[in-house]
Amino acid sequence: MTQKRIQAYEKFKYALTNEPLLLIPDWKFPLKLYIDACGKGLGAALHQAQIVNDKTYERPICFISRKIKHTEARYGASQMGCRCILWSLEKLHYYLDGSVFEVITDCNAVKSLLNMKTPHRHMLRWQISIQEYRGNVTIVHKAGNIHKNTDGLSRWALPNTPYNAAYVPKSAESKFQLKELTSQMWGQNPLRKLEKATSQIRIDIF
User: How far apart are CA 23 and CA 129, in angstroms?
Assistant: First the structure.
C-alpha cells in the first residue's frame, strides 16, 4: 500500500471517530436550525451550543436532506426557502416542539414569513402553519457566502424515497398545507373572508 493511500485511510478513520459526532440534545439550552434550499434539494442541520468545562461548544444533533419534488421545481428562490423551513419543522418536530430555537437561513423571505402582511395563497398556508412556534422561534438571516454547513446538504441531497428519514410522499398532503382550511372554509380569498368574519363578531361587556 502506498504512503498516499495510508494517509487517506488515516484521514478517513479520523473523520469517522472525531467531530462532528452527533450530540444528544440538552433541553436546558436553545437549539439552532440551519436550513438551505436550492434547485436540487432541501437541507437542514440541527445544532446546539452546550457548555463543557466553562467553554461553549456548538455541535450537530442531526442532518436531514431530500431532493425536491417535481411540483416544487416550479418554485422561485423565496418560495423554495419558505418550503424548506416548513419541511424541516415537520421532520424535526419532536426536537423543536416546546423548545426555544433559532432558524438560520440565507433567504430573506424566510425571515419575513412569520409577519408577512399580504402573502400569496399558499404562502398564507405556510404562515399559518408555523404560528404554533411563535414565541419560541427566532429567524435570523445569514449571508450565503458564510452559510456553508447546509449548502452541501441541499446540493447533494438524498433521494426522496422511503429509505430516507426526511422522505415526503408525492401524493401525501403535509399537515402544514392545511388544504381544507383554505379551500373549504375560507375559499379563494382567505384574507377577505377572515376580515369579513371578524367584522361580524360582537363582544358584549357586562
Answer: 28
Q: pTM for the complete prediction? A: 0.72
Q: What is the residue whose three cell numbers read 383554505?
A: 182
C-alpha–C-alpha distance, residues 39 and 110, integer Å: 16
Q: Are 127 and 83 in contact (CB under 8 A)?
A: no
**Rounded Cα gap, residues 155 and 22, in angstroms:** 21
22 CB contacts (<8 Å, ≥6 apart)? Answer: 59, 60, 61, 62
> What is 22-176's CATH topology?
Nucleotidyltransferase; domain 5 (3.30.420)
Q: pLDDT digit string (tens) for 110-131?
A: 877 777 777 777 778 888 888 8
